[in-house]
Amino acid sequence: MQGVVKVFDPDTGIGVIVRDDDRSEVFLLPGSLAGSMFRMLRQGQRVVFDLEEADGRPVAKNLRFGSDGF
User: Fold this and answer.
1) Does the chain have fewer CB atoms within 10 Å around its N or its C terminus?
2) What is the domain partition of the chain in residue ranges?
3) Does domain 2-65 have CATH number 2.40.50.140?
4) Is 21 in a helix, a strand, or coil?
5) CA-CA distance, 15 to 43, in Å (whole number)?
């Protein structure tokens, strides 16, 4: 799955990604970047991720660089 970072707070590790396919929002929870190549995300950054469900809401895991390399 691919999307764009809408917002990310590095202090809390919480953020939101907007999916490319249906424009729905996917949450980043504290620890979502653990094990990924990212230490920080910026607004507008394109990422590829796996989609999981936590507490009945979509959550992004295993983040990787998006198709444009950013």
Assistant:
1) C
2) 2-65
3) yes
4) coil
5) 10
Average pLDDT value for residue range 16-20: 96
Q: Whole-angstrom distance between the N-terminal and C-terminal Cα of the chain? A: 15
Q: Which regions of the chain does DSSP assign to beta strands (E)?
A: 2-9, 14-19, 25-28, 46-54, 57-65
Burial 8-23 (b: 16+ CB within 10 A, else e): beeeeeebbbebeeee
Average pLDDT over residues 47-67: 87
> Residue 14 — left, alpha, or beta (φ > 0 → left; ψ -120 to 50 → alpha)?
beta
8 Å CB contact between 15 and 28: yes
Residues 6+ apart with CB under 8 A from 26: 1, 3, 16, 17, 18, 19, 49, 51, 58, 59, 60
Mean pLDDT of all residues in the chain? 87
Encoded tokens for 66 = 């998006």
